Amino acid sequence: MELFWYIVLMTMLAVYVILDGYDFGAGIIHLFFAKEEKDKKAITNAIGPFWDANEVWLIAAGGVLFFAFPTLYASSFSGFYLPLIMILWLLIFRAIGLELRGQIHNKMWEAIWDKAFGIASLLLALFFGVALGNVVRGVNLGNVVNGVSTQEAHYFFLPLWNPTFSPQAEQLGIIDWFTLLLGIIGVVALTIHGANWIIFKTNSGLNEKLKKVVFNLNIVMVVLVVISLLVWHVIEPKPFHNFLDKPWLFIFPIITFTGLFGLFKVKTFKKHGMGFLFSSLFLFGGLTSTVASIFPKVLPSTNTVNPDLTLYNMAAHGYGLGVGVYWFIIAIILVITYFTIQYRVFKGKMDDVGYGEH
Amino acid sequence: MEDMLFYDRMQFAFTITFHYLFPQLTMGLSLLIVFFKGKYLKTKIDKYNDAAKFWMKIFALNFAMGVVTGIPMEFQFGTNWAKFSELTGGIIGQTLAMEGMFSFFLESSFLGLFLFGEKLLGHKLHFVTGFLVFLGSWASGYLIIATHSWMQYPVGYEVLENGKFILNNFGALFSNPWLLPSYLHNQAASLVTSSFVVAAVGAFYLLNNKHSDFGKLFVKTGVVFGLISSLIVAFPTGDWAAKNVAEHQPVTFAAMEGIFETEEGGSEIVLIGQPNMLEKKLDNKIAVPNILSFLTYQDWNAEIKGLNEFDESVHPTNVPGLYYSYHIMVGLGTIFIGLMLLAAVQLYRKKLYKTKWILWALMFMLPFPYIANTTGWYTAELGRQPWLVYNLLRTADGASPTVSSGNTLFTLLGFIGLYLLLGLLFLMLAGKIINKGPQLEKH
Ligand code: HDD
Ligand code: HEM
Ligand code: HEM
């Protein structure tokens, strides 16, 4: 039962990253590359009708986490208190940047909300990467000082950084050079992903340029992936042992690399959706490989006093998890139906949707 | 430690109060928009379609505010109330997760179609998407109130030795006796807000002699729905909610009503008076004898226990706040019924659009349903104190153990700043839409 909900949760998070990821990416492209009004319009048209429903994957995943793994929800949400609240603030700015811009036709007004949308998207991509970094690196569970827990074994609190920015310090921070590396990977990956979405869903004048951007960023991405694989040893002495133990897990890295190398062909794709497909594979593979590498841990402990949090010691009670399956299956069928309808209605290029016009 | 709890509570109270300003309009207005759109489908009179379109603009803006302020609510259980989440997540997580899966997806997927899909879908399907948005928002209200009802009146649970609450009966969450009255009352109240908003905008147009056709339509619709919903809010639903409190939380009931001493031969209903917590009595009281006993138990002489009979440790923590909240809600409810009755009589006599003073009153009434809704929730929440889960888990034991007061105050200040900005922007933009008015489409 725990394993079922773990898979559900991870799948929902992956779907969230793939769907809202293209919104963040589009925001980053909007910030750096969209200079002309018609390109900006094309970008917001391509995500306007979707972003809200995409964001719901985060809320729903939060709900499932709360219900299936209450202890993990309590421990990690209070422990990562500051970055989470900041993510909330950024989500607010992203949303109102998109929704309010078209309400008043005035250059200054539009410029303000363009920046709000773009910068919030950029920072969100960074924060989500950093968050993933924190999860694999682990935290000081129980706030151990000098070998003694100062809190219950599964609680902790992290400040934004510690002065050394080292992932090996006893008192860790949210941001250190390792988590920052993952943050940068997040930004690059989502920028590529967003560019692919724009190429897929619009006929904007930017599209040719964006293909070059994807290609160049993909080179950066390969370098970053190699670096991250090398430094993984620093935080985990045997980072690949899970894969060596269970070779079928290699499916996840294979998906990752298919996505990564497939993207180098971006300039020759006949179908506009291909690029988006490959970057989705890359995101899905990257995320699943990362969590598979620490499985069954969900939040490792960096001290030797308190045990890791695993999916087995964090879960809710059996009866509740069992009845949840029934309503969840009904719900997920409905959700898939909604998304199918939504994407059917807005199929093809979306340049004429008229998002944000009043 | 005490500070920490205080800021956690302030942050929750501030963010939820602000959040609920928006959904109360969302839920009622979606119904009214569906009504306008349905009228159009039936009569093919363009005015109705344009009315639906006009309110959709307000709706879209309001919905966006509801969404951005709703997400912090979902996260705050974990960030600020970690202990509570850990202990009860297996239960309240059910209904909250269901809310995400069943209603937020429904609403948000079809909202995009509703707002941008009219041309692609045609009028019939457009009506259907509107209806689904309405359904989603009401489902959301239902599941949230199911969650909240469990906190007021826990059912279907078992407590383990380590203090964790586990679910042992899923169906009980939905047959909770607290749920139905609470839900119906709340939804009626949300319809009150929306009807009053629609009527106020209509009155504004009539008094300014612009968009008069729409002005009349809005005033009429607002008054009809406003009268019906105001009546339902008081009876049967408000009455039912009060009986529930009297039965299951007698100490809360005594504090709400301002009854300090048990009276032989039946309790009076307090209309005005200030709770004096030093002497445990009501100052400057104006009350009518025996009415409360009758309203609660249909018996003029039924005994209602006064606050002084309960041990102080179970008294609601903020008796005056609770008492005022309740009296403001009920007082406003009475005024709403009175005003809407007058307006409905004039409407029936076909004189309403000329009766200036009623139009002025309708226009200025706009903020008051919001106040009534907010004080209603304060009644429920202050009444539950000092408990998070009634009689089982104290609020003081539910906060996050590792988040210090400095960090909570920091985020609280951040939320205050950000929400003030949101509020200003909302008022400005809604004002602009209203001032511009509905457009007759000429294609
Ligand atoms: C337009 C708003 C409005 C109006 C006019 C009223 N209410 Fe109300 N009331 C609410 C809006 C509201 C609310 C905000 O929607 C609450 C909060 C929790 C809930 O379910 O509904 C509520 C809660 C609430 C509670 C607390 C339930 C609990 O503790 O959970 C009681 C006892 C009443 N109401 C009773 C009344 C009575 C007797 C009214 C007579 C006129 C009345 N309300 C008018
Ligand atoms: C819009 C409606 C609501 C309003 C205006 C509201 C208001 C408040 C207020 C004022 C408090 C602080 C009480 C105090 O500390 O003295 C509070 C606390 C709280 N409420 Fe609500 N509430 C609402 C709905 C809900 C719902 C639906 C839930 C549950 C799903 C909920 C759960 C809580 C929790 C967990 C706390 C914190 C602990 C506490 O102080 O009791 N509230 N709310
Ligand atoms: C602690 C309590 C609450 C939580 C955790 C919460 C959570 C949320 C979230 C996450 C959203 C955004 C959904 C989206 O993206 O579509 C939202 C919106 C909404 N909430 Fe709340 N909410 C709370 C209180 C309430 C209450 C008391 C009601 C009504 C009874 C309510 C009704 C709604 C509705 C109808 C929406 C959608 C419409 C809108 O956004 O305006 N919520 N809420």
UniProtKB/TrEMBL annotation, chain A:
Q: Which InterPro entries match?
A: Cyt-d_oxidase_su2
What are the subcellular locations of this protein?
Answer: Cell membrane
Q: Does the keyword Protein biosynthesis apply?
A: no
Phosphoprotein as a keyword of this entry, yes or no, is no
Q: Name one GO biological process term.
A: aerobic electron transport chain
Segments spanning the bilayer are: 6-34, 55-74, 80-100, 112-132, 174-192, 213-235, 247-264, 276-299, 319-341
Domain of life according to the entry: Bacteria
Q: Family, per the entry?
A: Belongs to the cytochrome ubiquinol oxidase subunit 2 family.
Q: What is this protein called?
A: Cytochrome d ubiquinol oxidase subunit II
- Name the species this protein comes from: Winogradskyella endarachnes
Top-down, what is the taxonomic lineage of the species of origin?
A: Bacteria, Pseudomonadati, Bacteroidota, Flavobacteriia, Flavobacteriales
Automatic annotation (TrEMBL), chain B:
What keywords is this UniProt entry annotated with?
Cell membrane, Electron transport, Heme, Iron, Membrane, Metal-binding, Transmembrane, Transmembrane helix, Transport
Q: Which family does it belong to?
A: Belongs to the cytochrome ubiquinol oxidase subunit 1 family.
**Record carries keyword Electron transport:** yes
User: What compartments host this protein?
Assistant: Cell membrane
Q: Which residues form the signal peptide?
A: none
Q: Which InterPro entries match?
A: Cyt-d_ubiquinol_oxidase_su_1
PANTHER family reported in the protein's UniProt record: CYTOCHROME BD MENAQUINOL OXIDASE SUBUNIT I-RELATED, CYTOCHROME D UBIQUINOL OXIDASE
Instruction: Mention any one GO cellular component term assigned to this protein in its UniProt record.
Output: cytochrome complex
Pfam families per UniProt: Cyt_bd_oxida_I
Please give the biological process terms from Gene Ontology that the record holds.
Answer: aerobic electron transport chain
- List all membrane-crossing ranges: 12-34, 54-71, 91-116, 128-151, 188-208, 217-235, 323-345, 357-380, 409-430
> Topology versus the membrane, per the UniProt entry?
Multi-pass membrane protein
Official protein name in the record: Cytochrome ubiquinol oxidase subunit I
Look up the domain of life of the source: Bacteria
GO MF term (any one): heme binding
Keyword Signal belongs to the record: no
